[in-house]
Design a protein that fits this description.
The complex is a heterodimer of chains A (about 190) and B (about 200). Chain A is elongated, with a radius of gyration of 42 Å. Among the domains of chain A are: about 1-55, no CATH class; about 115-145; about 145-180. Chain A is mostly helical and about 190 residues long. Chain A is about 65% helix and about 0% strand. In chain B, about 70% of the residues lie in helices and about 0% in strands. In chain B, helix 10 crosses helix 11. The chains are: A mainly alpha (about 190), B mainly alpha (about 200). Chains A and B meet through helix 1, helix 3 and helix 4 of A and helix 3, helix 4, helix 5, helix 8 and helix 9 of B.
């Protein structure tokens, strides 16, 4: 003879009972367990009461009040390739731009030696300024009190390699930190605006 | 764009939303007509004040309808509406710091001491005259019992057994794991059984 199960009904069993899908094992148990029968009865009463609670409606003008606050949108824009409309102002701007470009090319072609002398002069001046800045910068660094100790510390190739590795490590750590700071969190968004 | 209101009644939510996206005012009104009662009922039972429930429902619909262009049809429209409605009600309750205590203690309480400290003692919670009036307005012992549940349990039980949503939908609406939703609903039913038995015995 099979002994009757003594395990009481779980929450899932209660759901199964209400949807008439209770297992035969638990149905057998229900026949003998006064406590579970009482639980099922009370739970049924609660569900019946919940099913009877009325639905409430807002006041009559509710829809109008909502509509007063709603912006009825135009259809969502369809991403298609399209040319902008040619208005008089746009045409004038385009013609002006084209005329300016043609005039610029024409003037450059007509005054090539003058243009070249300007460019050469500017490049030479920039080179001179750059060299002076670089030399002054190096002189300033060499005059610093810590410069000599830094030079002696990185005097051997091993030390130089260690300093280089340390610098690269610091730079990579900085980059990773910055990336973490600027990356937005990737939380799931189940729907717009919700 | 004009659509006959009668012809909208047979359409699914997704179809009505598609028409609303095209700018049909009738489609907007149809969405309000479909959900004004369930949304209002849910919020009313959460905040237990008609005027406030009306304001929060209005806020919910304005939010939903103004964002309808960004609605993603892979999700149920009803879940989206209820999610925003529930958030509006819960936000309000949090602002009011109205925290209903549970018969079984807080679901987050780990130790027996914490469970006891956060548990509700029947009859201890003195109701103000205003709350009594609100309870009378809602009417019935079951309404009173629902109003005594903590807000998380109340949302779950109302969505499951009054609005008839599935466990999965409720999990999506409330942003909770499915297991938590089931636990909340069964705890809420357990509390309701106890509350109703006590009310009957009084």
């Amino acid at each position: 003879m099979t002994p009757w199960p003594t395990k009481h009904l779980t929450a899932d069993d209660l759901d199964a009972f209400h949807s008439e899908a209770l297992s035969s094992e638990m149905r057998l148990h229900l026949e003998t367990c006064e406590e579970c029968r009482r639980l099922v009865l009370l739970d049924r009463q609660v569900l019946d009461l919940l099913a009877q609670v009325p639905s409430y409606g807002p006041s009559a003008a509710f829809a109008d009040r909502v509509m007063a606050g709603v912006r009825i949108g135009s259809p969502a824009p369809v991403p298609v390739l399209s040319f902008p409309r040619f208005t008089k102002r746009r045409i004038a701007a385009m013609v002006g731009l084209a005329a300016g470009m043609v005039a610029s090319v024409g003037w450059s072609a007509a005054n090539r030696p003058l243009l070249e002398s300007w460019l050469d002069g500017s490049a030479a001046a920039l080179w001179d300024w750059g060299t002076v800045l670089w030399q002054n910068g190096l002189t300033y660094l060499a005059a610093q009190p810590w410069f000599e100790s830094l030079r002696s510390a990185s005097g051997s190739p091993v030390r130089l390699a260690a300093v280089g590795a340390l610098t690269i490590g610091l730079y990579a750590t900085g980059l990773l930190t910055l990336r973490r700071l600027v990356t937005p969190s990737a939380g799931s968004v189940s729907n717009a605006g919700a | 764009m004009t659509v006959r209101p009668g012809s909208l009644r047979e359409k699914t939510d997704q179809e009505v939303v598609a028409l609303a996206k095209e700018g049909s005012e009738e489609a907007y009104r149809e969405l309000i007509r479909r959900y004004e009662r369930p949304v209002f009922s849910l919020i009313f039972r959460m905040v237990r004040n008609r005027e406030l429930a009306e304001d929060l429902s209005q806020e919910t619909f304005i939010k939903v309808l103004n964002a309808v262009q960004t609605y993603r049809p892979e999700f149920k429209f009803s879940s989206w509406v209820f999610k925003i409605a529930n958030n509006a009600a819960i936000d309000h309750l949090r602002k009011r710091e109205l925290d209903t205590l549970s018969l079984e203690g807080s679901p987050h309480a780990d130790t027996p001491e914490l469970i006891e400290a956060t548990a509700l003692q029947i009859g201890e919670r003195g109701e103000s005259q205003l709350q009594e009036v609100e309870n009378r307005e809602l009417g019935g012992t079951i309404e009173q019992a629902i109003s005594r549940l903590r807000p998380e349990y109340r949302s779950c039980i109302l969505l499951r057994h009054v609005e008839g949503r599935t466990y999965e939908e409720i999990a999506e609406i409330l942003n909770l794991p499915l297991g938590t939703v089931k636990t909340y609903i069964h705890r809420a039913r357990n509390e309701l059984r106890i509350l109703l038995r006590d009310v009957r015995e009084e």
